[in-house]
Amino acid sequence: LDTLTAREREVLLQVVTGKLNKQIAGELGIAEKTIKVHRGRVMQKMRANSVADLVRMVEKVGLSAP
Predict the structure, then answer these.
(1) What is the pLDDT of residue 65?
(2) pLDDT for 40 beyond 60
């Protein structure tokens, strides 16, 4: 998690709550394509194969939205 940027963390927390890319983009005021890029980088950096993997990782470290 230390390698994630602030924006990647923000996107991660939204993704694990089950929000769609389009919803996250609307809330953050950025393009859906940008969300896809951030999401892909998060998956890569955290070596996750699925959103379910991300959810487990976030729960394990106790990360939550500010």
Answers:
(1) 56
(2) yes
pLDDT digits over 46-62, tens only?
999 999 999 999 888 87
Among 45, 59, 56, 51, which Cα is nearest to 20's? 51
Tokens found for residue 6: 């602030």
pTM given for the model: 0.86
Rounded Cα gap, residues 25 and 21, in angstroms? 6
How far the first Cα of the chain sits from its last, in Å, is 15
Ordered domains of the chain (ranges, CATH):
6-61 (1.10.10.10)
Q: Scanning the structure block, which residue is given the tokens 């955290």? A: 46
